[in-house]
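User: tokens in, sequence out, please.
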């Protein structure tokens, strides 16, 4: 994750130090998260905003955290940001909106640049390097941890009495999902 801590007041952060690799620019300190927490020393009194400017693949950008430091004491001794998986909810429905079980569906990453084998779901799915397959049920499938990229959702086998539907293209970008033909991203958990 790319993180940025900004002070609201016009104060210099030149005295800030850390054992981690940080970059100080104007009124902000930036770094890339790792498996260890970042400890910042020498922060002046003021009001701060910690924001995630880019989430790791498969995660949505989390909400910013505000805190203050007064007389050298932070309002929160430890500021923690928690990322949530990017979630994509996929339904196979009839014209009335009822779920249709029995369709074989495949989700393929167009360019195959990211590994989809770590994607999770409470539904029964099969994951591979650039493809996920499953059989639709009476509930939508929710895929968690989808990395950014362009995807194609295809119905390979239709349930009895139904015909195979057209493919759907969508994009996951910075943890949000949108149809390929939309210019504005949708909510973090989207229904495709």
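Assistant: Sequence out:
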């Amino acid at each position: 994750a790319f993180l940025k801590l900004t002070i609201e007041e016009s104060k210099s952060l030149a005295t800030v130090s850390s054992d981690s690799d940080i970059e100080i620019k104007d009124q902000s300190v930036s770094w890339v998260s790792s498996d260890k927490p970042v400890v910042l020393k020498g922060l002046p009194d003021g009001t701060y905003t910690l924001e995630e400017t880019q989430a790791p693949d498969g995660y949505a950008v989390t909400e910013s955290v505000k805190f203050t430091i007064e007389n050298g004491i932070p309002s929160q001794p430890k500021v923690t940001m928690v990322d949530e998986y990017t979630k994509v909810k996929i339904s196979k429905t009839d014209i009335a909106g009822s779920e249709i079980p029995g369709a074989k569906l495949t989700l393929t990453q167009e360019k195959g640049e990211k590994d989809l084998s770590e994607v999770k779901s409470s539904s029964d799915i099969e994951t591979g390097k650039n493809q996920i397959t499953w059989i639709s049920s009476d509930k939508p499938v929710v895929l968690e941890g989808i990395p950014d990229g362009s995807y194609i959702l295809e119905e390979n086998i239709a349930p009895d009495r139904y015909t195979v539907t057209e493919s759907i293209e969508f994009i996951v970008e910075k943890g949000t999902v949108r149809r390929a033909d939309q210019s504005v991203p949708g909510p973090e958990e989207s229904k495709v």
